[in-house]
Amino acid sequence: MSAPTLDRPTDEAALQRQFEATIAADRRVEPRDWMPEGYRRTLIRQIAQHAHSEIIGMQPEGDWLLAAPSLRRKAILLAKVQDEAGHGMYLYSAAETLGADRADLTDKLIEKKQKYSSIFNYPTLTYADVGVIGWLVDGAAICNQVPLCRSSYGPYARAMIRVCKEESFHQRQGYELLMTMMRGTPEQRAMVQDAVDRWWWPSLMMFGPPDDDSPNSAQSMAWGIKRHSNDELRQRYVDMTVPQAEFLGVTLPDPELRLDPDTGRHRFGAIDWSEFKAVLAGNGPCNDERIARRRAARDDNAWVTEAATAYAEKHAGAVA
Ligand code: BYC
């Protein structure tokens, strides 16, 4: 049995105190550090949901890869969708540092035991949707994820730095596409407005339920996993997006949206939380399609994983 050292206490109460001191001092918790089981579980839940969102998020835009209107647009979209695969991989790796198994997480997604972002259960009906996803969906992702670069769990926070840099490119490519369409024909402008009308409210739902109906927020914020509440980030997003909509020349589909001169913040209308709940319960427009496709990708490509695993094992044997 190894002797206890001064900086690594062995009894649970002392370990708990050390963990709390790390959080209070705003230092990072690292994979080999002791952590409460609840902290580990919460991180696996959030990181897995985030990873699943990136992977499922490849589908709505991926649907347009073969129908992109030019080689340039196709190259941009291809790069973006590949980035999303990369984000999913960093995030599954971060979950693995907590003891989770990647294949098991994928199974839980397919069996609907773990969630992915509600936003990816809506269809992409026209090419303007590609631009609006970049502008609004990636814009919301940036708002939500920049504070996660300061999350208390080291591997998650570090993964977020690269993810956010890439999300920033994604948002700009979306906005640039929309600016181009808005300078085009009346039909193109109408396509952009139609896409904005369909994606605005779902993008507000990405931030999660309101604070008074968010069971995980208080504990996640106390642990420094989340740095801001769902409503705070939603408000920040609205304030950031309204001037961008004005510059673009589109109308956000909310008659109650207006600047409050006293606070300098935008007030907005009531979100339809029954729609959010229906989507989370599996009844959004594309839930079944998204999961069926992910299941097919897992099953049809199982031979690749098996071959790669067999090759790695053989190679490891040869080296040893
Ligand atoms: N959709 O207590 P709450 C991207 C769930 S990727 C579905 O507030 P929490 C992008 C929540 O999980 C976008 N479920 O939870 C990718 C919880 O259920 P469980 C993904 C949602 O965790 C490709 C329950 O509702 N981003 O942007 O404190 C291309 C109660 O909620 C949603 C992330 O995952 C939702 N919208 O806060 C383009 C960011 N909202 O798990 C773009 C990291 C809530 O208890 N995640 N739920 O069964 C987070 O920041 C937080 O997990 C959330 C929710 C703010 C999302």
What is the count of structural domains?
Answer: 1
Which ligands occur here? benzoyl coenzyme A
Indicate the CATH class. Answer: Mainly Alpha
Describe the strand arrangement of the main beta sheet, using strand numbers. 1-2
- How many individual β-strands? 2
Beta-strand content: under 5%
Estimate the global geometry from the Cα principal axes: globular
Mean pLDDT: 95
How is the CATH topology named?
Answer: Ferritin
pLDDT < 50 stretches:
none
Q: Indicate the radius of gyration in whole angstroms.
A: 22 Å
Q: What is the percent of helical residues?
A: 55-70%
Q: Which series of helices and strands comes N to C?
A: HHHHHHHHHHEEHHH
* CATH architecture field: Up-down Bundle
Distance between the ends:
30 Å
Let me know the largest β-sheet: 2 strands, antiparallel
Structural class call reads: mainly alpha
> How large is the count of helical segments?
13
